[in-house]
């Protein structure tokens, strides 16, 4: 069955100094999942090229509602990814340091619900 995507919305955040923003994405139905598609990321590149553990302004996504859940991705520079939750929640944490002299634009993420398969027999 092809998954259906509902309620796709878009959020754009421009980095300012010393930000620490947490956004929790939760599907309306507990059995559904959450999908994040990063369309555009323009943040300071990692200190060591290709090593995203050295990002200073960064997006970190967790597979659940808290920072103790499994980390799914760390993004900075121009890295774009698509992320799917295993449960019904994802946590996005955006943090920046005290320097925004490079004037990066931020990021755009589209979030949507991953329809669980519990309707599959109804519409067959
Ligand atoms: Ca910075």
UniProtKB/TrEMBL annotation:
Ordered alphabetically, the record's keywords are: Disulfide bond, Repeat
Q: Which residues form the CUB domain?
A: 1-114
Keyword Repeat found: yes
Xref: SUPFAM superfamilies:
Spermadhesin, CUB domain (SSF49854)
Source taxon at top rank: Eukaryota
- Pfam families, per database record: CUB (PF00431)
Read off the CDD domains from this record. CUB (cd00041)
Q: Which Gene3D superfamilies match?
A: Spermadhesin, CUB domain
| InterPro entries, A to Z | CUB_dom (IPR000859), Sperma_CUB_dom_sf (IPR035914)
PANTHER family per the UniProt record, alphabetical: MEMBRANE FRIZZLED-RELATED PROTEIN, OVOCHYMASE-RELATED
**Stated name of the protein:** CUB domain-containing protein
Native species: Plakobranchus ocellatus
């Amino acid at each position: 069955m092809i998954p259906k995507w509902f309620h796709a919305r878009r959020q754009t955040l421009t980095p300012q100094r010393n930000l620490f923003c947490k956004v929790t994405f939760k599907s309306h139905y507990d059995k559904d999942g959450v999908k994040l598609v990063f369309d555009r990321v323009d943040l300071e590149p990692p200190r060591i090229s290709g090593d995203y553990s050295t990002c200073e302004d960064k997006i970190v996504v967790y597979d659940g509602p808290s920072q103790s859940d499994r980390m799914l991705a760390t993004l900075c520079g121009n890295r774009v990814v698509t992320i799917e939750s295993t449960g019904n929640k994802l946590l996005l944490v955006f943090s920046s340091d005290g320097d925004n002299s490079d004037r990066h634009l931020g990021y755009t993420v589209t979030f949507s619900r991953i329809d669980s398969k519990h309707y599959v027999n109804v519409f067959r």
